[in-house]
Amino acid sequence: MVLLDFLCYAFIAVVFIQVVYYLFIFGNFAFLKQKKPSSKNIPVSVIICAKNEAENLKNFLPSIINQDYPEFEIVLINDDSNDDTLEIIEEFAQAHHIIKIVNVKNVEAFWGNKKYALTLGIKASKYDYLLFSDADCQPVSNTWIKEMSAHFSNKKSIVLGYGGYAKVKHSFLNKLIRFETVMTAVQYFSFAKMGMPYMGVGRNLAYTKNEFFNANGFIKHIKVRSGDDDLFINEVANSKNTAISFSSGSFTSSIPETRFKAWIKQKRRHVSTAKLYKPKHKMLLGLFYLSNVLFWIMALILLAITYNWMLVLGLFLLRISIQYLIIGFSSKKLKELDILLLLPVLEITLIISQFVIFINNLISKPDFWK
């Protein structure tokens, strides 16, 4: 009985932690109204690093070329591709003067390192404001550059955007991928709004050249092959220099994985960099994940044995209701409302998947950058 009493009290504490996270941290984004900044029309360099992306460039590059923006260039980086990527880039460059080609050959010191290729692309760009995306990614509107760059100011030198994934009908994996993407966005948008920015996604991210060179580029984590987006932002972002953009026209959309094994492999690369975040960020993110795991384990145990079941059920429903409220408002902003129907199932599946990824990363190092 003493053990069950302890478990019940622990469950109350876990629910309290979860409620604090959802209402007082994630609520910063859920209830936030996007203020529409005035268009700056500052010259922008759009930087895209491509490795074996010939088909994706054919499909998605026109959506960037046709952006409604007065002055921009597209810096296309061919990172030692062994398909027709370079040829496709050259064809586009011949037809469009705004395209600049950076052809990267691997060197022994930076073999297969995307950060090396990106550094060369950034150095080759002619404008001070840089907007990043991926070759398998496309803006959802022709005002993407306008809406992202509008958040730059004398104080704001970093803009965090939302990079979603295309919807696939009748696919549980697709909903899981998009749920994980929404949860990640809710976290980095919310912490940024609180003055504690800790990451961004390379599918939709902007910062100034000065920010990059003042930090000596990726030098502090150049040997870590992933993390050109989140590790760099974790290093340089602060409460004063970071803005967020979540107007629907500023979104990008990427091709989602269609096989669970491929998605796990992709997430292993992404998760591997989190251990290098600043201690305060690791603590806050770790506490949320741990409280999430304990919430479901304790709730299921206590409800299964019907111990103090009315209190446990009440707390369970309170936390679920608050989660639906916060994720509901957030997913509406991010145009991902369809994930709500399976929210508890998606959350449990994601928790298990993240645990599998954690164990796999302990056993072996993940692959990097194709």
From TrEMBL:
MF annotations from Gene Ontology: glycosyltransferase activity
Gene3D superfamilies attached to this UniProt entry: Spore Coat Polysaccharide Biosynthesis Protein SpsA, Chain A
Domain Glycosyltransferase 2-like: 45-167
Pfam families in alphabetical order: Glycos_transf_2
UniProtKB keywords: Glycosyltransferase, Membrane, Transferase, Transmembrane, Transmembrane helix
Bilayer-crossing regions: 6-32, 284-303, 309-327, 339-363
Entry's EC annotation: 2.4.-.-
Keyword Membrane in annotation: yes
Keyword Transferase found: yes
InterPro entries: Glyco_trans_2-like, Nucleotide-diphossugar_trans
Family to which this protein belongs: Belongs to the glycosyltransferase 2 family.
Name of the protein described by the UniProt record: Glycosyltransferase
Biological source species: Algibacter miyuki
